[in-house]
User: Fold this.
Amino acid sequence: MTGPGPRSETAADCVRSACAQVYGEACRIEVVDRLEDEEAARRERVALTPTLIRRHPEPERSWVGAFADTDALARALRTSDA
Amino acid sequence: MPDGSLPEPDRADAGTYQRVLLVEDEPSDAVVLEHALESVGIPSRVLLRVESLGAALALLSTEPADLAIVDLGLPDSSGAATVRTLRKQAPDMPLIVISAGTESAAAIASLHEGADDYLVKGAYDTRALDQAIRHARERRRLWSEARRRTADVERAERQLRTVVEANTDGMLILDATGIVRFANESARTLIAPEAGSLAGTRLGTPVLAAGEETVELDGPLRDGTRTKLEMRASPIEWEATPAHLVVLRDVTEHRLLEERVRQSQKMEALGKLTGGISHDFNNVLAVILNGTDALREMVPAEFVDAHHELREIDLSARRAAGMVRRLLGFSRRGYLRFESLDLGKFTDDALALMRRMLTDKIRFDATVAEETGTIRADPAALQQIFLNVVANARDAMPDGGTFSVEVCPVTLGETHRARHPWVRPGRYERVSLTDTGGGMQEETRSRIFEPFFTTKGPETGTGLGMAMVYGLMKQHRGLVHVYSEPGEGTRVELFFPSAADVGHPADTKGALNVQRSRPEAGGRGETILVIEDEPALRRGMKRVLSSAGYGVLLAGDGRDGLETYRRNRNEVALVISDLVMPKLGGREVLAGLRDEGASCPFVLVTGYGAESVEELRSEGIRTITKPWSRETLLQAIHEALGPPEAMADSR
Assistant:
């Protein structure tokens, strides 16, 4: 995400809930603020934020959106493996 | 060899050929060919025979031919090269090659170069010639058709590409896994200005909330500034697989503008709020000041302590009134309270405040001329002007510099008037505020007084500071000049008309500037109708007026007031009414009185909130402001009832 703020918080909460729904409570989520870690954003070639990158389960996949709707995100996560 | 005994060929094409080009340098071969052509329905009169490639090209350059029959062994060209050259000149012309028996390789090569068919000298008959001609025509027709269609498709594609590439919205095709399959130029500019191409990079699968068509995202940082992009995504098919069409729009400027509008609406709301509160607050203060006045008269002079307490109450109430005025100064709805002040001395006093606003890195210089004069100004407004200019100077010198203040008298000529009509030529006091910051481009300088124009971020700049300076200076009948060039710092010059030189327009007599030494104005039994909805104020007014020798009629709202007037119209010498009341306000009362044909003077009592006093006065409505004191009230009434020149003075 880019910077702190209510929108970033909403997105992080939404990602946590959606991932818990789809992958269970065991999943580990790392939140990166590109204002603080520009290098990570550049390395991952993140153009738009919020962006969600799933490392595991493979294959690596990514999503982009405001992540304000947990159900919509959970659906997108499930569809990717269908 | 053509044989006359062969069956008569189909002559359906007779008349189709108007110009048939025969390129053959060998006369005997030409004769044979002419003969054969005659027998397939192409008469010799339509034949144009030339003996070289050069001659053929020259002929074709003036007019196209319906058919060309070309020998491969010409004096200036041979083999497939001849066909290649001719084809370039006449792409749609049916072309048959006549080759010697030894040239079969060249004949085949010529087909690759665009010949439609070939015949071998001495080995073709009329039928073969006829078939070759038909074949060549058909083949060329199909080829031309295909060429035209290809051109159409290419044109359509070019147009489509232009539309897509010229679009300021970024357009992307993402495959099901969020990989970019296509991106237009705007998309590249918006999301990856440094990258050469986006195709193949991972953007991510778009996720939109249910029921939403668009979503707002953060784009890349642009010169360290965050950008806002609106993303719209729709499912499509791309190369027969599911994909997303994503449209990105840069809404950064839009959001900034919205933020500014929000900011200004906030200021407006704050103004309304402070205006509204001050109305009630001023009523309360009026009662306190009034009561204090009354008590001072009632309490015998020997009660020194009581008088001391009353003085304290009076001072505190006046301080509170000053605070309300400053609040209204912020919302720019209050009116200015002008007083005579020495600009040099005022600036001297304000220097400490200015210095506090500047950072340690900024050197501070002040030169105040000894012979500075008196101006008519509102001290609070003056302070606001200084603070705005100083804040800009500070922001212009983040790495330090020098800020200097200079006050000196100047004389302005007629030339200034052309640009600033409200400025009169004459003596002015000038305050120059100079910084050594980065300065401004002409474009910025020329817009500096525009409301909402700011070069600062949304967190720090409202774009109203200098607009306020301009407005306040105008109300002071002064003017403000800004001199600046990039890298040369900025000088703001404020010109105030000298009090000695210019009669001030808004020379108001405020409740808080009462000169107690003035002999009190009193009545001679005239009846005054008081319309005021606040009971305490109504009582206070009655007490003051009665004690000063006036007869008093009271009304609790506008409707009651008009009714009371009607009943006592011959008696009422003056009507004094509050501006804001629940039933019929002061303005409506005045209108009602005029309708009644009332000729008695009218005085409006107003808080600062509802309407600007200047506005009312410009309409010719005599106005006093809350909280009023005994002196203000009596003075206003005395003047309203008095001779005409006194009336003019109070406006």
